[in-house]
């Protein structure tokens, strides 16, 4: 939106000041002191910003104290025509509700959460005839690729993914349309080598661009990579260790050191996967927090995501819900985190590391 159009939405300085003054009167008169979420809305009722607060009143009043016109709070106020809020029974409920509203409404000013998400990267397994692994910043697209993560350190992760692809002979190029397999038939003359890529010639790629492997051979290698990523297989590490041992036995120490370094880089990734898996696995329990009207709200959390919420459940209701959520055992969904659940996993991981005392409100679940 151009500055000129924006001025039309906001109105004259006097109109903006009058609107801000009205909002302040509303907050002073009505905003509750407890936790909740709030929304700033523009002229057309579009939600511009969603926030949450432990005390709605204190947080909302702070917007009117923004000292500089360029501060985010001041900019939100200038563009807002209305303000509404929803009280929540606990700060956790407000935090979760804020996340869900942001995902649903995608408000323009909620850049802070986007910035948080950029700290993390994910390993994506692409689709197509010869899938490849790549490191991406976000995991929000709906392209059907499978994601592993979140991880910290995109550059380190890129190196590790390169090692993994090299170790298993997976491609790392972007020529999706030209992948063929030797058992595909009708491949004569064989496709020419891809200009600028020698990975097949030096044994780092099975070479689906020149129809070298069969489809099954490529799928097998991809399965080994997926098993490594979800912690159920060690084939890439074992392969590198064997080459290292072979080189050492032949007294080719430089070569052995080369394989040793590759092995160490992949081991580093494995350690990061394990830490993540531990965090995810340990976030499996029921979490009991204050609910509305003095009752209790129970969140059933499995592998870092809230699967059910119950308000003041009786014992039978809670038992039935636990049975439904946890019945299939705790190892049943050990793969990557589905993209639409990543934000919630990050939220829960951060919540329990910021407030470890909250773990006292959890009850373990026997898998
Ligand atoms: S050898 Fe072919 S398939 Fe493999 S990375 Fe290079 S261009 Fe891609």
What labels would you give this structure?
alpha+beta, 3 domains, 4-stranded antiparallel beta sheet, 3-stranded antiparallel beta sheet, binds iron/sulfur cluster
Q: Please, could you describe this protein's structure?
A:
This protein has three domains: 3-116, GIY-YIG endonuclease; 119-280, no CATH class; 283-364, no CATH class. Helices cover 45% and strands 16% of the residues. The chain is built from twelve helices and ten strands. The protein has a four-stranded antiparallel β-sheet, with helices on both faces. Strands 2-1-3 form a three-stranded antiparallel β-sheet. Strands 5-4-6 form a three-stranded antiparallel β-sheet. A hairpin with a 7-residue loop joins strand 4 and strand 5 (133-136). The protein starts with a helix and ends with a strand. Iron/sulfur cluster (SF4) is lined by residues 171-173, 175, 194, 197, 199-200, 205, 207-209. The site of iron/sulfur cluster has 12 residues, from loops.
| Net shape | elongated
- Helix/strand order: HHEEHHEHHEEEHHHHEEEHHE
Nearest-integer average pLDDT: 84
Give unreliable regions as ranges: 1-8, 330-335
- Strand tally: 10
Fraction of helical residues: 40-55%
Q: What structural category arises from helix and sheet content?
A: alpha+beta
List the strand order in the largest sheet: 9-8-7-10
What is the count of helical runs?
A: 12
Global Rg: 27 Å
Main sheet: strands, sense, barrel: 4 strands, antiparallel
Domain unit count: 3
% residues in beta strands: 15-25%
Terminal residue distance: 53 Å
Distinct compounds present: iron/sulfur cluster
């Amino acid at each position: 939106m151009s500055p000129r159009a924006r001025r039309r939405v906001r109105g004259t300085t006097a109109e903006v000041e009058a609107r801000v003054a009205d909002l302040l009167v509303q907050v002073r008169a009505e905003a509750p002191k407890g936790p909740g979420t709030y929304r700033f809305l523009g002229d057309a009722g579009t939600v511009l910003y969603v926030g949450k607060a432990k005390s709605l009143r204190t947080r909302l009043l702070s917007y009117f104290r923004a000292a500089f016109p360029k501060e985010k709070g001041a900019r939100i106020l200038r563009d807002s025509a209305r303000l509404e809020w929803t009280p929540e029974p606990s700060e956790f409920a407000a935090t979760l509700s804020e996340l869900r509203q942001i995902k649903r409404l995608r408000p323009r000013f909620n850049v802070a959460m986007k910035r948080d998400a950029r700290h993390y990267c994910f390993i994506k397994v692409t689709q197509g005839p010869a899938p490849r692994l790549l490191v991406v910043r976000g995991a929000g697209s709906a392209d059907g690729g499978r994601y592993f993560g979140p991880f910290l350190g995109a550059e380190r992760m890129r190196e590790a993914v390169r090692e993994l692809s090299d170790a298993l002979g997976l491609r790392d190029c972007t020529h999706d349309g030209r992948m063929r397999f030797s058992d595909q038939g009708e491949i004569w003359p064989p496709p020419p080598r891809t200009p600028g890529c020698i990975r097949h010639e030096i044994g780092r790629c099975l070479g689906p661009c020149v129809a070298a492997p069969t489809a099954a051979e490529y799928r097998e290698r991809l399965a080994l990579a997926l098993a490594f990523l979800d912690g159920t297989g060690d084939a890439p590490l074992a392969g590198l260790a064997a080459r290292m041992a072979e080189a050492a036995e032949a007294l080719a120490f430089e070569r052995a050191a080369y394989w040793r370094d590759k092995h160490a880089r992949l081991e580093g990734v494995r350690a990061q996967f394990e830490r993540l898996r531990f965090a995810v696995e340990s976030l499996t329990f029921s979490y009991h927090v204050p609910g509305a009207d003095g009752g209790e709200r129970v969140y059933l959390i499995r592998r870092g995501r809230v699967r059910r919420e119950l308000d003041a459940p009786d014992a039978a209701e809670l038992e039935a819900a636990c049975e439904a959520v946890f019945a299939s055992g705790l190892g049943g969904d050990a793969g990557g985190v589905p993209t639409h659940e990543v934000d919630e996993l990050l939220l829960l991981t951060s919540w329990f590391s910021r407030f470890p005392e909250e773990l006292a409100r959890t009850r373990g679940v026997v898998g």
